[in-house]
């Protein structure tokens, strides 16, 4: 199978890695010649889909399937319109993405269908977390302990050109699960745990037995399935929650190719989420006896090596 991967930054690295592990021939489209995922590809094209859409579509039409590996709403909406007129399957659910790309909209949905989420400010005390609705990767996040810090956090979000979401700060471990749906049924996969830098950037994801108790793991799987049903999911989505003293609190949902967790899941379980997405009989892959894996980021500069986040 020949797969076009649109996006060559962090999400492109994940998609290309998974595609190579699945035995697919990879063609990566990136707008920067220095973009890291290009170095992993069998073939690549330095193309900006926003301004060179005809050239991008020429590359895509030469493939059997395409997947977006970016979060730019304009690019994604434009590509959906173009690819609908071709015979190349596009592994993407624009409706689910538009809901999940807004934390404000997705939290409103979760509250409506009874998913446990952190309380809204001012229905809670301090500390609270102030975060941008549409940005990911921990960008623009502030933990505020008083109203002055709340206003500072709001200003930080506004400088990003985004809307702030303010909720109670819930301490605990960050866990997530990836789920794939086809509009009729869905299947959640293995639970992972994320670790973060001081500026809220993910630096490590692990996948191993016993991250959650059996009861909490079943609850997280049920929550993911309920969300997939609510949005009629037709692609892949990650659901992230805090394992707190008061139980699981869902923080966000992201309906696009995740980063880090799929590679960790592949190493620990043998299941390749990208291969699952391309299979008409997805969900039939048998998980081997679960092992332990850890996906970590390091920066090497001369004789120094330090742990760092994905940004």
How would you describe this structure to a colleague?
Strand 9 and strand 10 form a beta hairpin. The protein folds into 3 domains: 91 residues, NAD(P)-binding Rossmann-like Domain (Rossmann fold, 3-Layer(aba) Sandwich); 50 residues, 2-Layer Sandwich (Dna Ligase, domain 1); 137 residues, D-amino Acid Aminotransferase, Chain A, domain 1, CATH 3.30.470.20. The strands form 4 sheets. It has a 6-stranded antiparallel beta sheet. The protein is built from 9 helices and 15 strands. The protein is globular and about 55 Å long. It is 30% helix and 28% strand. The mean pLDDT is 92.
What's the helix and strand layout?
Layout: E1 2-6, H1 10-21, E2 25-30, E3 43-46, H2 53-61, E4 65-68, H3 73-83, H4 94-100, H5 103-112, E5 128-132, E6 142-144, H6 147-159, E7 164-168, E8 173-181, E9 186-196, E10 202-207, H7 214-230, E11 236-244, E12 247-254, H8 261-269, H9 273-278, E13 293-296, E14 298-301, E15 304-307
Parallel strand pairs: 1-2, 1-4, 2-3
Antiparallel strand pairs: 5-6, 5-7, 8-9, 8-11, 9-10, 10-13, 11-12, 14-15
């Amino acid at each position: 199978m020949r797969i076009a991967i649109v996006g060559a930054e962090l999400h492109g690295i994940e998609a290309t890695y998974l595609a190579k592990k699945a035995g697919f021939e990879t063609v990566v489209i990136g707008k920067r010649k220095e973009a890291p995922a290009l170095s992993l590809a069998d073939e690549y094209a330095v193309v900006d889909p926003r301004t060179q859409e005809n050239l991008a579509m020429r590359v895509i039409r030469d493939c059997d399937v395409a997947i977006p590996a970016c979060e730019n709403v304009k690019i994604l909406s434009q590509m959906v319109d173009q690819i609908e007129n071709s015979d190349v399957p596009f592994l993407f659910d624009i409706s689910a993405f538009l809901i999940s790309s807004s934390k404000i909209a997705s939290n409103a949905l979760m509250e409506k269908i009874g998913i446990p989420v952190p309380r809204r400010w001012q229905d809670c005390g301090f500390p609270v977390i102030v975060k941008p609705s549409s940005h990911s990767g921990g960008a623009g996040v502030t933990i505020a302990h008083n109203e002055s810090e709340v206003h500072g956090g709001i200003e930080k979000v506004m400088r990003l050109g985004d809307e702030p979401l303010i909720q109670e700060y819930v301490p605990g471990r960050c866990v997530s699960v990836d789920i794939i749906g086809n509009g009729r049924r869905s299947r959640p996969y293995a639970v992972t745990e994320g670790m973060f830098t001081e500026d809220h950037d993910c630096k490590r994801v692990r996948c191993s037995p016993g991250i959650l108790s059996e009861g909490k793991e079943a609850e997280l799987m049920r929550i993911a399935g309920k969300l997939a049903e609510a949005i009629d999911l037709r692609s892949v989505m990650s659901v992230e929650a805090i394992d707190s003293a008061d139980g699981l609190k869902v923080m966000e949902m992201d309906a696009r190719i995740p980063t880090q967790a799929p590679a960790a899941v592949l190493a620990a379980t043998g299941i390749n989420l990208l291969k699952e997405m391309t299979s008409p009989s997805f969900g039939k892959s048998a998980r081997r006896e679960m092992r332990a894996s850890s996906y970590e980021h390091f920066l090497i500069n001369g004789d120094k090596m330090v742990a760092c986040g994905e940004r």
